[in-house]
Amino acid sequence: MLDAETKLYGLLGNPVSHSLSPFMQNLFLQRAGINGAYLAFAVNNQRIKEVLHGLHALGVGGCNVTIPYKEVVIPYLTGISRTAEACGAVNTLIYQEEGFYGENTDGAGLLKALEAQHQWTAQEASILLIGAGGAAKGVAMAMAFAGAKKIQIINRSLNRAQALAEQLAHYGRLAAEALPLESLQDAGLYQEIDAIVHTTSVGMYPAIHERMPVRLDALEERHLVVDLIYNPLETRLLQEAKARGARVASGLGMFVHQGALAFQHWHHRPPDLTNIEKLVEAQLVHQKESK
Ligand code: NAP
Predict the structure, then answer these.
(1) How confident is the model at residue 291 (pLDDT cuts 50, 70, 90)?
(2) CB atoms within 10 A of CB 170
């Protein structure tokens, strides 16, 4: 029930019409008994500065930020966290009296999900990261800060992988290395790694039959294979890795936990996550069916 006391939260991006954040955040608010509402705003590219000032002037409690504004918002914030600075991107705005403060919960959200699902931590881990875009950066930084031993980055554009490896070596005390896409064929690569984290959009709906050329015959039960994609819930990569006996995790857990961490920043308590992945998944199916 909305009334004169209802506090507003929201998502800034473009497009936002398929986002599951409003569904999830409103459910969190409802479960916590908080008088709040969370809306999605498709922001015009030219007006992000005005939007931020306006939302702050209205006393909006917090926002999530998605593509294409994760980097663009930074100059208009009063400050950003160490993680957001390392990523060069913000996905959460937190109301402070002087303006919004920027945080990035994407990478930490993935780590929370992997801990909850597989009791897996990045501490002392050797990770193969496929992709070097915005999501890869967030994940790599969170893993470096969590004590990863080694991160090898494979990307179609090698120069982007190299830039990320250099940045990782600067921020974290770990070995970071960039490799060309062809290295995925090197069976030796898989022997020393604990986890493969796929962060590109290859295999995402509707191109669900595509997958990165990971050497499936080099996968073992001890490997954890993570795909940041959650539409489809199980990408071809995850299906085939699972069939080889590897443990797998989809991007749904990351999505839920990055949102849960944002909620915690705004409301100073964690949301009730009971059955949340099933509910978000059902919403995803509903969206597809009503297309
Ligand atoms: P981005 O910044 O545009 O980066 C895209 C990455 O994918 C780059 O490394 C790019 O390589 C690579 N790539 C794209 N098409 C490719 C192809 N055909 N072959 C090989 N590599 C290709 O995008 P992003 O924001 O990082 O998002 C990447 C994925 O993560 C998306 O699927 C997104 O849905 C997912 N994601 C999930 C969550 C979650 O909560 N689960 C959060 C954020 C993102 P180049 O550098 O060579 O172009």
Answers:
(1) confident
(2) 10
What's the Cα-to-Cα distance from 157 to each of 127, 131, 151, 169, 182, rounded to whole Å? 19, 9, 17, 19, 12
pLDDT in tens, 110-154: 999 999 999 999 999 999 999 999 899 999 999 999 999 999 999
Task: Say if residues 151 and 174 touch (Cβ distance below 8 Å).
Answer: yes
The atom number, within ligand 1, closest to the CA of 156 reads 47
Average confidence (pLDDT) over 254-271: 98
Of all atoms in ligand 1, which is nearest to the CA of residue 258? 40
For residue 63, give Cα distances in angstroms to 8, 92, 199.
9, 6, 24
Residue 255 CB–ligand 1 contact under 6 Å: yes
The residues assigned a catalytic role are 70
Indicate whether residue 228 lines ligand 1 (CB < 6 A): yes
